[in-house]
Amino acid sequence: MPYDPILVQPMRDELTRVGVQELSTPADVDKALAQPGTTLVVVNSVCGCAAGSARPGIAMALKNDIVPDRSVTVFAGQDVEATQHLRSAHLQGIPPSSPSVVLFKDGEPVAMIHRHHIEGRMPETIADALTNVFNEFCPKEVAVA
Over the range 82-99, which residues count as b (16 or more CB within 10 Å of their CB) and which as e? Predict the structure, then answer.
């Protein structure tokens, strides 16, 4: 049974306030990941490590000069079908983890931060890990002469 929408709304708002788009259906997930370029996918959660580390770290990382082309989220425990579809269709062979953060490039996962990399870590540590991933895999602006 999904979590109460009123309960999780503030947890959703933490990400949407920084420009992360919510995906609530399997079709939304497929549409986002079918786009070329880089897509950051956040599997949001009600747990303490999502509140204390993941969401604040993601917000910090999205202030980096180099960021993914788009940032999206599904909420485990509420966007049940979208989360399950993400895992079964796009993260095959990767154990489910929530919270977690995955960077896709042209529809393929290239980097993932699992829950065990989030628990007990400071938001700055999560932000540093994500900015390193962004700097490695996301396109850089090309200076025009």
Answer: bbebbbeebbeeeeebbb
Out of 23, 33, 41, 47, the active site residue is: 47
Q: Is residue 52 part of a domain?
A: yes
Q: Does the annotation mark 47 as catalytic?
A: yes
Tens-digit pLDDT profile for residues 86-137: 999 999 999 999 999 999 999 999 999 999 999 999 999 999 999 999 999 9
Whether residue 34 is contained in a domain is answered as yes
Residues of the domain holding 81: 5-137
As a whole number of angstroms, the distance between CA 89 and CA 104 comes to 13
Has 138 been annotated as catalytic?
Answer: no
Domain count of the fold of the chain: 1
Q: Is residue 145 part of a domain?
A: no
